[in-house]
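Students often ask why we bother predicting the structure of a whole assembly rather than each chain alone. The short answer is interfaces. A chain on its own may look different once its partners are present, and contacts between molecules only exist in the joint model. In this exercise we take two input lines together and write out one structure for the complete complex. Read the inputs first and try to guess which parts will touch.
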Amino acid sequence: MLNNNYYCVIMAGGVGARFWPMSNSTTPKQFIDVLGDGQTLIQKTFNRFARVCPKENIYIVTNKAYHDQTREQLPEIADEQIILEPYRRNTAPCIAYANYKIKAKNPNAVIVVAPSDHYIQKEDVFVDVISKGLGVVSQNPCLLTIGIRPTFPNTGYGYIQYNEDEGFMGNPSIYSVKTFTEKPELEMAKSFLESGDFLWNAGIFMWSLDTIDKAFEEFLPDINDLFKQGEGLYNTPQEEEFIDRIYQVCRKISIDYGVMEKAANVKVYAADFGWSDLGTWGSLYDLRKKDDKLNTVVGNHVKMYDSEKCIVNMPRNKVVVIQGLEDYIVVENNDMLLICKKSEEQQIRQYVTDIQVDFGKEFV
Amino acid sequence: MLNNNYYCVIMAGGVGARFWPMSNSTTPKQFIDVLGDGQTLIQKTFNRFARVCPKENIYIVTNKAYHDQTREQLPEIADEQIILEPYRRNTAPCIAYANYKIKAKNPNAVIVVAPSDHYIQKEDVFVDVISKGLGVVSQNPCLLTIGIRPTFPNTGYGYIQYNEDEGFMGNPSIYSVKTFTEKPELEMAKSFLESGDFLWNAGIFMWSLDTIDKAFEEFLPDINDLFKQGEGLYNTPQEEEFIDRIYQVCRKISIDYGVMEKAANVKVYAADFGWSDLGTWGSLYDLRKKDDKLNTVVGNHVKMYDSEKCIVNMPRNKVVVIQGLEDYIVVENNDMLLICKKSEEQQIRQYVTDIQVDFGKEFV
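Now the answer. The structure tokens for the assembled complex follow.
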């Protein structure tokens, strides 16, 4: 039923400093049930894509450090579907690596690349958009990205400006792209929203293997040359040693900056499936179920008194009494505890740094 | 050097619901370093009395459940100095039991009885008062209690009204007693303070074995009869079985209500050695060392930001970040966490009850 040429590459190498101590470099956000509904983000992401691609065509690219967690959380996939990076090199090398692995199996692959740790509210719409998008890129040599219709002037997202044209390949929601813009100031974000021709960049990409291959050759030839040297080694026992060697010399660069902002054949699929990058505690608070005092609590033995609008994440069996807090984050994980006003969440990275400086790296 | 007839009975059977989760029925307050200075309260109490009585004459009366903790915290004492109660029966039976144990060893004993979990600031003054008091009761058949000169209208303490007379047995600070009053309302407490003839009841008593024996015979003959049956069994292998039996039928009554409020030969030694019963988080906060933000923190890895006047007790190695709290109690122990405004500390008993009702007795 599902097209055997359809592949999915889930990027799962992120480290989660913003959500400390719920997430940390040992267990980043993608491996956590941040919404408190029983599934981790990578599990949700995998299950969504399993409705579009055959399960055996879904690859997870992650750091070597996360091999075991990936194995544990996705028992359905084969070990060879976990692509392990020895170093963090941003998204372009990660995608190049996956491309060469897939090319060794199926040169006719059509690929969707996506982050592992985002939120999608309307899964049916999502599946429809991805399926249609893969259909388009299997017939046309374009680089297709997903743009989310913005609902407020978020300054934490990247924006894509598109041409109000008549659609593309018979799909009225796919447009050509004018510009990519990184996180704007608030005033700029407001004017983006007013103009009506900007979309949020969701970091989800679709292309045929052939098209993305040519783009790497043209815009990132140094990176392409490195990975090309390994042809014949992918999916063999020699792969790991080869990858360890080239990753050491490979530069860090994102696919957005390295390819998408430079290529002429970029299209954007404007969609609306209730998306969030879950980048802040605030965004998490907005999405989680709340009780009648607007608290959202994970933990089986938490009692709240005289408290409102708090986001609480406690180990399942910890007995916790919270009295008299309004608009706070209260989170414990790995025997580390954070109590912090929601309005101060931008400081959390600094707290983590302070702890490392004062107490040692081993503590976070 | 120390008088071999001088004995001390430290009452250490209390359960600590008010300081949950720092203390609980598994580890009550007396076994905790509540001041965060390296010694538990029972250790401090023992060391104070070791300056007055020979160490081998210091007895700890506690519940069977606390035998091991007592052993561990007071390795200097012999096992026979730990008197174990099978049930909680308030202070009168506890004192009667200790009396009969001591009588079997030394009928000429002169005894000071004291709680195990109070704070004494001026230890030298305390030792002087206890030594002089024991001298008085070894020469006079009176029941001597310690009264603390009150410094504010505390509504949590009992009060002793005394006669402004010329002193007793050559000691100008020892007076005869008019009345005992339990915890007064604030207005009453204020008038007590204004009148100048009220003292706080510290729950520390001194008497000769002979005098307290006669008092039990006269005011609590049923209790005295129970313990008298065991003469010949104390300090033998038969003692435990006997005690288990009589404790089951023994009624609960305090020494204050059962003896002190009824006897005619009660005297009070007015003293001023910086005393607190450490009965509330507020009293603990007042006594602990504070940093420049007036926070008092136990825990080696606690970082405080934008926070003031908090009392924080964390496990030694737990990494904790607290931001934006003023006047809060933040305490973790045994994997249980409390965050509560200091002003609401009277509710803590209720929270503990709620937890037991909602989650089960095993959780606190």
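Check your guess against this: The longest strand of chain A covers residues 198-208.
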